[in-house]
Design brief:
The complex is a heterodimer.
Chain A: H1 3-23, H2 26-43, H3 45-48, H4 83-119, H5 121-135, H6 139-149, H7 154-180, H8 184-191, H9 196-204, H10 209-232, H11 244-252, H12 260-287
Chain B: H1 2-31, H2 36-41, H3 47-57, H4 63-75, H5 89-124, H6 129-143, H7 146-160, H8 184-190, H9 194-231, H10 234-241, H11 246-258, H12 260-283, H13 289-298, H14 302-330, H15 332-337
Helix pairs in contact in B: 1-4, 1-14, 5-6, 5-9, 5-12, 6-9, 7-9, 7-12, 8-9, 9-11, 9-12, 12-14, 13-14
Classes of the chains: A mainly alpha, B mainly alpha.
């Protein structure tokens, strides 16, 4: 067998072992199931929802404020739209928010963390001090401020959240990089004359992957919560597009009589965040990276 | 002496963060597209009115000069004037901040008073039912959006059980003004108004619970982890061998070093706590910074918004300063090693 095949087999059996250990952890599996179900539901929303047309500005006054039933699983809202269909479409917005925010924040934060941790000196001082400053601004308040200057909508809110979220990744990658930059394999690569690019991204970064995976999963849950809070305040995606936070807010005026109009969308947010949290906890146990929160 | 050096270093560092914060806020406010004067006055204002306001606010001067004016104002504790009402932003924020501060203070107390014992219990009975209950509680408190919990508590305690008031800081009929410290719970005691104290406490109970849940869960979780960590140390084993009674061992030898991680967590989480406070305040009509902040945002009153963000940031920095000093006090090793 060639060396590459051996390495390939080893990697495969590693993955298999990891999966075996992961699948023995019931809460982790619950988390994974929730995440997979929600992501699939969000992707195939138009196919699986009973009333996909209720996503828009449909008005059906004869069916308003109906309680949950076989016909309307989550009941109907104040203009007679099916809440279940709107919740599934609302998950799309939440997941999209998480993907866009983390998709921008993670690469940015990771690169900064690698640079600060590897080079040290003034690079470290500048990057880490900026990180500390950015950490002092509450993301939700920042998003509010940006919404004040620009206009309150989903894109601006996402930008504002992403503009602060990278700090957590920078801190995480920085602490790992600092620990491993003096290890033999890094020094060996330096002695062999490997490029800085190779050392940062091929030698150090792979050692951060497990911690990043845990952090990303936990963060998905938190970004979804922050996004929901923003739209609850009226700064998210604008109606009639369904959004979970907006649905909780608009249903709140009909509490407690028509409780399903805000409680069930609220439970959907909780469910999404729960899935990502359990998954993250499971990954943390698997990779044995305790410090990552 | 060594503690004084630690303090000085820490205070200087906080000042530096505040300067950085002012730059960030200034860049957001002035660097974004759009003219603040035009936004505040709306599209129907004439160009002369806009130019007038620009001149009055100094918006026509070079950016560096504007920043200089802004910072020299901040140094004197002056956040400028509202673009709409022309009232000093300070006055508006001072009144609303006291309410937010009180809510946050009660919240932190709840989070620690409940979170630490839960964590200790979970660690003491590891893998038994108390541990499982605490773990479940920690997960659910972390994933429940604060505004949702706030709404649920409001329905349950206010509309279904009718046990607690669900809006405001005091009953609208009660005549009481917290004019000494601005905090209802403290001023009422200072003035001997026990009826106001009782009402204030009843009013703050629900919002503070809704806000405390997430932090409490985190604190319980971290306390549990660090208690378990500490319990495997040699000196704990030694104290057991010497026959030190269990309460002394758990509370004196294990809990004291275990206090540091929850404190550090509180510092880091504090930013999101302020963010959540905005939402919870809105649900319970708490007369804090949130209502003011959101109103000024909708009115595009940029100076007021900058003030709200700056005050939130200063609040965060101050709390972290206090926490770091506390940590240095609880754990002498930190003072020598330096920051965190």
């Amino acid at each position: 067998m060639s060396a590459e095949t051996v390495a390939g087999v080893r990697r495969l059996s590693n993955a298999y072992q990891n999966w075996y250990r992961f699948s023995r952890n019931p809460t982790a599996m619950i988390g994974l199931t929730i995440v997979v179900v929600c992501v699939l539901a969000a992707i195939f929303a138009p196919l699986i929802t009973p009333y996909p047309e209720h996503v828009g500005a449909v008005v059906n006054f004869r069916a308003r404020h109906l309680p949950p039933s076989a016909e309307y699983w989550f009941g109907t809202d104040n203009v007679g739209r099916d809440i279940f269909s709107r919740v599934v479409f609302g998950m799309r917005v939440s997941l999209l928010l998480a993907v866009v925010v983390l998709g921008t924040a993670i690469p940015f934060g990771t690169v900064l963390g690698l640079l600060a941790g590897y080079y040290g000196g003034w690079v470290e001082i500048v990057i880490m001090r900026i990180t500390d400053i950015a950490l002092a601004i509450p993301p939700l308040v920042m998003a509010l401020a940006v919404a004040a200057v620009l206009s309150p909508d989903l894109i601006n809110s996402m930008m504002a959240i992403a503009a602060l979220w990278w700090t957590w990744h920078t801190r995480l990658i920085y602490s790992i990089t600092r620990q491993i930059r003096t290890q033999e394999f890094v020094e060996a690569a330096e002695t062999l004359g490997a490029s800085k690019f190779h050392i940062l991204f091929r030698e150090i970064l792979p050692n951060c992957v497990s911690a990043l995976a845990v952090k990303t999963s936990l963060d998905c849950g938190f970004v979804i919560l922050v996004g929901a809070s923003l739209s609850f305040l009226g700064l998210g995606i604008q109606p009639p597009t369904p959004d979970l936070g907006t649905m909780v807010a608009s249903g709140a005026s009909f509490l407690p009589d028509y409780w399903w109009e805000s409680v069930l969308p609220g439970c959907a947010i909780l469910f999404l965040a729960l899935g990502f949290n359990l998954l993250g906890d499971g990954l943390r146990d698997l990779f044995d990276v305790e410090d990552v929160r | 002496m060594e503690f004084a050096l630690f303090l000085i270093r820490r205070v200087l560092w906080s000042l530096l963060v505040l300067v950085g914060l002012s730059v960030v806020i200034f860049v957001i406010a002035r660097g974004m597209p759009g003219d603040p004067a035009r936004m505040a006055l709306g599209p129907r204002a004439s160009q002369e009115q806009v130019d007038d306001l620009r001149e009055k606010l100094g918006l026509d001067r070079p950016l560096i000069e504007q920043y200089g004016l802004y910072v020299s104002g901040l140094a004197r504790g002056d956040l400028g004037q509202s673009l709409l009402t022309e009232r000093p932003v300070n006055d508006d924020i001072r009144n609303t901040f006291a309410a937010t501060f009180e809510l946050v203070l009660v919240t932190i107390t709840f989070a620690f008073v409940l979170g630490v014992p839960l964590g200790v219990a979970a660690a003491r009975w590891k893998d038994r039912w108390p541990d499982n209950v605490v773990r479940l509680l920690a997960i659910f408190s972390a994933v429940t959006p604060s505004f949702f919990l706030a709404l649920l508590l409001q329905i349950l305690a206010g509309y279904v059980l009718h046990v607690l008031p669900t809006t405001g800081r005091l009953p609208p009929t009660m005549v009481f003004s917290p004019d000494m410290t601005g905090l209802v719970l403290i001023d009422s005691l200072l003035q001997g108004r026990f009826d106001a104290f009782a009402e204030g406490l009843r009013h703050v109970l629900l919002p503070a619970t809704a806000l405390a849940a997430a932090t409490m869960g985190q604190i319980a979780r971290i306390t549990r982890a660090s208690m378990i960590d500490v319990s495997s140390q040699d000196y704990i084993e030694a104290s057991r061998a010497f026959g030190v009674p269990e309460p002394v061992r758990v509370f004196k030898y294990m809990l004291r070093p275990s206090f540091v991680p929850p404190l550090t967590i509180l510092g880091l989480e504090f930013a999101s706590l302020i963010g959540n406070a905005f939402v919870v305040e809105l649900v319970f009509s708490w007369p804090g910074m949130a209502a003011y902040g959101i109103r000024t945002i909708l009115q595009k009153d940029l100076n007021a918004v900058m003030g709200v963000v700056m005050v939130s940031g200063v609040f965060f920095v101050m709390v972290n300063l206090v926490i770091d000093v506390l940590v240095g006090f609880v754990d002498p090793r930190v003072r020598i090693r330096g920051r965190r």
